[in-house]
Amino acid sequence: MDTNDNGKTIIRSESRSQKPKSGITxxxxxxxxxxxxxxxxxxxxxxxxxxxxxxxxxxxxxxGMTGGPTGFAGAERFQYNETMSEGRAIExxxxxxxxxxxxxxxxxxxxxxxxxxxxxxxxxxxxxGLDAFPDGAPSVKDVWERxxxxxxxxxxxxxxxxxxxxMQDVTTGSGTFDIFTGPWNSTGDLADxxxxxxxxxxxxxxxxxxxxxxxxxxxxxxxxxxxxxAGSYYAFSLDGDFxxxxxxxxxxENPDVxxxxxxxxxxxxxTPATWEDVDNISEFFTGRDFGAGTMYxxxxxxxxxWGLATFYAxxxxxxxxxxxxxxxxxxxxxxxxxGIRCAEEHVRSFQWCPPDALTFTWAEAxxxxxxxxxxxxxxxxxxxxxGDGYNPDGTPKSKATGKxxxxxxxxxxxxxxxxxxxxxxxxxxxxxxxxxxxxxxxxLFMQWLSSTRTYTWMCGNPxxxxxxxxxxxxxxxxxxxxxxxxxxEFIPKTIARSVPSINFAGQTAFDNALxxxxxxxxxxxxxxxxxxxxxSKKWQRIIRKRQRKGILxxxxxxxxxxxxxxxxx
Amino acid sequence: MKYDAATSAPGTDIxxxxxxxxxxxxxxxxxxxxxxxCFVLPTILLLLFIVVFPLLMQIYLSMSWWGPLDGTPWxxxxxxxxxxxxxxxxxxxxxxxxxxxxTLLIMLVCVPAxxxxxxxxxxxxxxxxxxxxxxxxxxxxxMMVVPAVVGLMFFLLFQGTGPVNDMFGLPPDFSWLTDKDxxxxxxxxxxxxxxxxxxxxILLAGMLGVPRDQLLAAQLLGGSNFQNFRxxxxxxxxxxxxxxxxxxxxxxxxxFDLIYIMTKGGPGVQTETIxxxxxxxxxxxxxxxxxxxxxxxxxxxxxVLAAYGLKAMARxxxxx
Amino acid sequence: MASPAxxxxxxxxxNGMRRSLFSTTIHYLLLLLAIIVxxxxxxxxxxxxxxxxxxxxxxxxxxxFPKNPTLQNFEFIFYGRAEGLVVSLDRTIxxxxxSSLVTSILGTFIAVTTGTLAAYAVTRFGVAQSLPLSxxxxxxxxxxxxxxxxxxxxxxxxxxDTWWGLxxxxxxxxxxxxFWLMKTFFDEIPIEIEEAALVEGCSYARIFWRITMPIVMPxxxxxxxxxxxxxxxxxxxxxxxxxxxxxxxxVYMATLTSAMGGQMYGMKAALGVxxxxxxxxFGILIQKHLVRGLTFxxxxx
Lengths: 569, 320, 301
What we know:
Radius of gyration of chain A: 24 Å
Low-confidence stretches of chain A: 1-58, 128-134
Structural class of chain A: mainly alpha
Largest sheet of chain C: 2 strands, antiparallel
Strand content of chain A: 5-15%
Helix content of chain C: 55-70%
Shape of chain A: globular
Mean pLDDT of chain C: 84
Strand content of chain C: under 5%
Mean pLDDT of chain A: 85
Oligomer: heterotrimer
Number of helices of chain C: 14
Number of helices of chain A: 22
Largest interface: B-C, 118 and 115 residues
Structural class of chain C: mainly alpha
Shape of chain C: globular
Number of strands of chain A: 14
């Protein structure tokens, strides 16, 4: 058994022989860990010697602070008082409670893989060289419940299907959940369906620090994009799904590999600047073996649902500075020459994918990187949180430990100007259910959870897949310890170059239509051109049907949020 | 049998025993019509409950563009009233006809396959042999496994790097579930695996129902096992066979769980059946008016078919 | 109602003399083939349930039988945590298991009771002659095509995410099976028996309860098993009509994913094994009626 398990990243099973001969039985352990934190399990206690001294006892806050986590080194960085966003939320709850307008319990529908981030204590054990303390650290949920007495009930649902679950609750109006979570893209759908609460009034009253120039989103525009829809606040950003490029640095620096590459392409192997470079690298590595088995060059997601992000990213940089999904009149640009060329490239790149890539979710894709089967991938940033680094027992998290690095998004070369583009896709987001009986209390919990202090503390936690995106996150040592310096450098740069995927009402229909056609093209049922024309036709039909609902304005508004940044190399 | 009024029919309360004047309930128990009405009442109530409102709502919605994204309650669908435009679109909706054709294709392949395999298996079980009960029990297990789990297992079995490819020595890039042609057959294999046992069970019962004396007589006359099977058993199993085929076809038409879990209708729409298409329209495209139109169309088509089928069956029974 | 074994007792002797070694071999070879085909996925499921995480996928080599067999998959879904696993569950299998059992049994009860009564009334009392067709239509129809009104209705009467709401829909959609199955059994019973009882002075209700029902009891048992399996297997209704309290096993299975490892195949397989137990136990209990019961009365002689 390990000294600690929070640093471990994949579900790992231990061989029984590794167990230290300790007198502590499993039963002891279970009761012990249960007493620490409800759901957090098992392996912690053993082996963590009492050599660490607890710096602060519960309730002992840093000077001037009135709330926040305690019990581990650095906890004061996440503490707050009533002048801060989190503190205002707690004060708000106390007023509601005094007025008898607060519930005993709030129900939250959450994607399965994120639950641990709220329910598991953090930090626990040694994280990336930083000493942390096993017994004192609370979970996010603990802190909230301790300070407000309002229980948070979390119900899990699979990431791909959670929107259906939300829609079901919205349309039956059963009000089972106070808080929904799901892909950021669905905000428009839910707002138009009157399923979620317009939080303008609450935002004005409680002033969250989402857009704080020092700690919040990198730009005010980004705050608008992530937290508002049609000019009003609806969404609570809980993720950082800006597809970021990671690569196997070891491999790129290997002289043999470099020599072979140069032989073939007559240029140096380096981090790619354009999609053409990307495709060259994918082609080069496919079928070769550099000591970790046969490689496949294209590690990007190509499967239904998840693979859309890959296509959108490629699409966005087809024209300078941006290739929009819709033209200025709101007509789909999928079947334009550039759109078709992009689809052709996308389909062509599938030949360099690992087998079964079309059934991959993010998890299987991560595995290919962790097993060194692929040289590079543009993917969710927790790839490195779960796969690069060391477990507390000193074993590497995966074969890729210490080998990974990140680079800028790729684009195209327009006479020496490069429009490097990534895409914001999925991005777990919370909303308050319109049927909630306690919308204000639910809002306050979400403000507390998504404000920069709590969120910074939470996103370093390897118990789930919420990723960093606020400026404060990137300055946080605990976050850096799990995400590494290269992520801290390149995620913000990627955010600055990210285009939004579709997020206005009708999004699920748009995405599904394109997705089916892309899959048809990848599996050879149609040519890329046929698929794009068919997808375009479907998009036009959706627009036509939703015209009276102002979809053209939404499209125009979405175009405004695209970045204009251009690089020289 | 002694007259005893103490019996209670289900659905009636217990009647006090041996009263001279028959009570209200006793009267009902003795009146064919009234008792009959009492007996069918729960079923009729359940039917009305599940039919009346949904039917009216579907008719209403099917004549509008309404969907949840409108942000209005469903009863305000009249705001986007469009008469029969949804139905007109249905006529030209390639995906609808494609999914219908795929559903029928799956039925056309799986039902006969399950039938023949079930028949063959049943034939092996006519005679007594050592281990018969054990074999019989194992063969029935697939239909006891939850279809969602079956879907998951076949998903894993047919991965490119999965056990099936490994066993047959196929390369990992020989894909099943993500191949445009093989995907639908892979789904069929899973369905056949799960439901052949039901066919087997029904057909075996049919075979064992053939009178023994006729079989014995045939065997004494010197026919081979197979000849006896063909000439004596098969002709007497006609009704059982029809029942088995109809039962599976009806259930197969609705196939959803297995496909949704194995392929979600993909790649593209290569394994999209009617139910999967409706599911996507309901929860992804959110076109509820159109779903209503499809639902009503299917309802009408199936009702006509069912009425004809029942009539034909009644005629057959009379002939037999 | 005899079991298959009894049926063939006399025939065996006749055939036993005729069967050659060759045909016996073929017979067993075919059976063996059938068992292999049936057993292949089952074995994969069962062994998967005992495999530790590294052996779930074939990335690091392919194994049929677990190299390091473990019970942690079962432990995990029952306790929400397991020794040696980082992840933990917020809900264990217990709730969904109870939910599945309660709703399937109640649904079966509703379907069998109402179906049996209605079938008897239709065959014997001649009432509601259009009922067979209406009931059949109910079953023919893909449930997804009416799910929207049903969801709206269930929400209106407050039945979403309740035990009775799910039981009710199960009862309704499987009603056609019990109705038709029981109808064929009643058709099969010679009417003379009941007429004789009538002459003796029995009431109709008593004839039904004391005479007819005992005769069709084996059929009723098969009918119940079959309907129970249908309800137990359901994914769709539970997916759309429950939210958290009454989620059933197949829906619960879909939530067994983790942030880092993706789908938890071992746990899902363990759940599959557990989910197969109730139908199998039920099946064994009524085994001797099973073959006879599913012929829809087509064996009138």
